[in-house]
Each structure stands twice: as structure tokens, then as C-alpha cells.
Amino acid sequence: MLIYFVLLALAITPIALLFARFEYRRRGNLSALGLSLLLAMFLASNLILEYATTYEMPSSPLDYVGVLVGTAGVLLCLVSMVVFRSPLKVLCLDPGTLAVTGPYRWSRNPQYVGWFMFLLGFALNDWSWWCLAAMTIIATYLHLLVLIEEEHLNRVFGERYAAYRRDVSRYLGRSQPQ
What DSSP element (H or E) covers 14? Predict the structure, then answer.
């Protein structure tokens, strides 16, 4: 079953990313189909982790580290969504205003960092080669999605986003002055 989810993730990811890039360039936001494709992309890759692991209560130090990392990731993701202040903005349906407060002071993509931390924490509880495959796929598609979104944000917010990009790191930490 796992191999089917890996193949599904590898098949749907480029389609979803290319369609999102096309829609951002053409329409400036995602349609229901574009959003559905991105959600399917997330689901397919995350199902690999679901089937690759058998979650049990923590029993080793690594398990507890996984719980802490995963919990921190969920909290970061949720706080980042609250800072957005708009469900339409979270779903990429409305650009709204540029978020630069809260966790967005240290990362331009704290939602994705939080989601990856959650998945990493989950995987630390039951590590396997399948987990490594899932984490690699997820990290790759998240990065590609970030590149697409950055291109869109640059078009929408112009110099304000360029200045923000110079000041804040893509994933973690503050950018170094140039």
C-alpha cells in the first residue's frame, strides 16, 4: 500500500504545483480546483507517513523528543494561521495584507515550518525508510510551493515584499544585513 501512496504523491505533486503556479500568474489566486489539487498533494504525501508508522505512546527519549517537536510544530502552525486573520488568506484564495508580525518576524513561512516540525515529530516516534521517503517528498514539495508563493507575493506586494524578504529568512532566523 505504501508504494502506491509514494507513486500517487510523486504523480500529483508536479501537477498541483504547476497548476498553482499557472493560476497565481494568470488569476492572482487559486481556484477551487487549484486548492483541491494542493490539498490532494498534501494528503497523498502525508498518507505515506500514516501508513509507514504505527503510533504508540512514547516510551523512549527519542519518542518524547518527537512529541515535543510535533507539539511545537502544531502550535507554530496554528499561531501563524491566527496571525493571518483570514481563512481565505490561509487557503490562498485572497492575498490580503502582508503578514510581518508574530512568527512572521523570524520566518516568511512559519506555517510550513510548523507543519514540517509536526511531521518530523510524528516520524521520530516510529522512524523507518518510509518515513525518510515521506519527509523528503514533503520537504521538496513544500519548498517548491514556497518558491511559487514567493513569486506571487513579489508581484502582489512589490517593494514591500522585497524589503521583507531581505529582512526575514525564508524558513528560520533573521536574514543577515547585506
Answer: helix 2-26
Q: Are 26 and 83 in contact (CB under 8 A)?
A: no
Summarize pLDDT for 83-140 with one digit per residue, the tens.
876 666 666 666 678 888 889 999 999 988 998 898 888 778 777 777 777 788 888 8
Q: What's the full length of the chain, in residues?
A: 178
In a domain, 173, yes or no: no
C-alpha distances (whole Å) from 174 to each of 76, 77, 104, 105, 177 are 17, 19, 10, 8, 9
Structural domains of the chain, count: 1
Query: Does some domain include residue 51?
Result: yes
Closest CA to 138 of 29, 75, 47: 47
In a domain, 72, yes or no: yes
